[in-house]
Amino acid sequence: MLTLAMLIRTPRSRVLIWIFAIVAWFTMPIVYALYMDGELKAGKFPVDADSIGIPVGLTAIATLILAPLFFGVVWLALRDYRPVTLFAWNKARPIWSIVWTLVIGAAAFDLLRSGTYLILESGLEHPLFILHKLVQIYLFLVLRAAIVSRKKAAD
């Protein structure tokens, strides 16, 4: 059973986070394609204009191009991984904590912003897309906590 305490801590296993990251990353174009198809069927795009294939294709290409950067961050986060709270802070390395909180926090905030916009614009018509955004936000918070809580190499 999933509890609140489990949600505010990072998962116990780094393998689970790797699987979570791979699935969340590579399902992004599929979820986006389903979202765009739903929008097209709802009549939100003119039938005589450009295809939804352009943004869907660009999303797939961007997913592949940015995969090394994303998985590099995942690798960095999980090199010396230990489960911590999502709100982890490294008092011994405050600049490290601030920088990674701002960088990953900005990405998580953008996902939250776009998800909120989607809900305000379309309601709950696209639950899979909204769920995928929430999964991505949780993953980013897990990565931030894992990176911030790392000890210095000399420790």
Question: What does this protein structure show overall?
Answer:
The chain has 155 residues and is mostly helical. 70% of the residues lie in helices and 0% in strands. The protein has one domain. The radius of gyration is 18 Å and the shape is elongated.
Short descriptors:
155 residues, mainly alpha, 6 helices
End-to-end separation: 36 Å
Count of individual domains: 1
Largest sheet: none
Order of helices and strands: HHHHHH
What Rg is obtained from the alpha carbons, in whole angstroms? 18 Å
Please give the number of β-strands: 0
Helix content: 55-70%
Shape: elongated
Overall average pLDDT = 87
Low-confidence stretches: none
| Helix-strand makeup class | mainly alpha
